[in-house]
Amino acid sequence: MPVVSVRDARKAFGGADVLRGITLEVERGEVVAVIGPSGGGKSTLLRCMTLLETLDAGDLSYGDLAVARQDGSGKAIYARSDVLKQTRSRFGLVFQNYNLFPHYTVMRNITDAPVRVQKRPAAEVEQRARELVAKMGLKGCEDKVPCQLSGGQQQRVSIARALAMDPEVLFFDEPTSALDPELTTGVLRVIRELAAEHMTMVVVTHEMDFARDVADRVVFMDGGVIVEEGPAAQVLGDPREERTRAFLARQG
Ligand code: ADP
Ligand code: MG
């Protein structure tokens, strides 16, 4: 059973069709890179999959949890709020702009949701947070606030924060696009390490070398549809579709 799946997902904003029938299944341990030109619907797909937006039509499930099911007319009907709440603890999301609480320390940023939302014991969460701080290369930063950190460090805090919830799948939306190349390296390194540990991940990225190295599967989205998908080496090295070829040629 896939960790997460969407089927025939559709979304429009004010008459503009942004998702025009997306079907995507992510298996346990799989790393999927989503690439494509700006405006193609990548962020909207992630926002719909992580319940920040609702689908107009289609199905969405997390394992055995049916989040949205289309009715006879195709309209997406969402599950009750208790199911949505359960669903929210199955995934983590890392944005381009970190979205940390500016007045909380690094530790508090990481421990807040597991303690307050998941109601886990504070001591256990604290210990897990210290492990994650070390894993993210942030030892010594525990009591700092975000503005005392570099952008790369802040992004690694936001990855630690997402991992502290023990998600089954992590979504990243262009996690390095706000960072200088030298800060990008550290963030990509921790994502590579997570991939080596078989963390299930969906990563929207414009870093083609990273996608080639880390992703099991690459999905090329343009104009609200999946134009092409397949093993990273095939899609990036020998694309079948002209639109994919043209996009990759522009990436340099
Ligand atoms: P990508 O992440 O691939 O660059 P997006 O999903 O951000 O693409 O955007 C796809 C299209 O949807 C764009 O034309 C964008 O302007 C539009 N869009 C995204 N979010 C909204 C919104 N909340 N309201 C109106 N239009 C939106
Ligand atoms: Mg985007």
TrEMBL record:
Alphabetical keyword list: ATP-binding, Cell membrane, Membrane, Nucleotide-binding, Transport
Q: What topology in the membrane does the UniProt record assign?
A: Peripheral membrane protein
Q: Which PROSITE patterns match?
A: ABC_TRANSPORTER_1 (PS00211), ABC_TRANSPORTER_2 (PS50893)
Can you give the residue ranges of the ABC transporter domain? 4-248
Q: What is its main location?
A: membrane
Under Gene3D superfamilies, the record lists:
P-loop containing nucleotide triphosphate hydrolases
The record's listing under PANTHER family reads: AMINO ACID IMPORT ATP-BINDING PROTEIN, L-CYSTINE IMPORT ATP-BINDING PROTEIN TCYN
Know the name of this protein?
ABC transporter, ATP-binding protein
| Organism taxonomic ancestry | Bacteria, Bacillati, Actinomycetota, Coriobacteriia, Coriobacteriales
